[in-house]
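Sample 1 of the test manifest.
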Amino acid sequence: MNKLIAIICCLLLGVAPALAGDAAAGKDKSKTCAACHGPEGNTPAAPDFPRLAGQHYDYLVKAISAYQSGARKSPVMMPMVEKLSKRDIEDLAEFYSRQQGLVVKY
Ligand code: HEC
């Protein structure tokens, strides 16, 4: 019960969102990525480079982590992310997930 109250207090105090990334920090950290993915992750330098803008946060964290672990292989992307910390990955994912992505007609 005390644990539950503590969790609710944390949520009310806004402690929980601090566990996700920081979009402003992510924007700073995205400068090297911009060369290929565009400043907001929306204007890739080549048509076979992916857009990152508007992509889901969880997917971005997963994709970057997979390049880092080698589970997903790309000779281009693997060296780009090898030195990123967990925090860097979360900040970058937060930044790109908050950009306006493609609008799809349903
Ligand atoms: C030299 C060009 C280049 C740079 C710089 C670069 N990327 Fe990439 N990125 C690519 C290419 C090419 C791919 C597609 C690779 C593949 O086929 O898996 C890609 C794929 C990705 C994907 C997977 C997207 C998807 O839809 O699955 C993410 C996420 C990503 N990059 C994030 C980043 C981040 C974050 C940075 C900066 C730290 C960065 N990239 C820097 C070229 C680049």
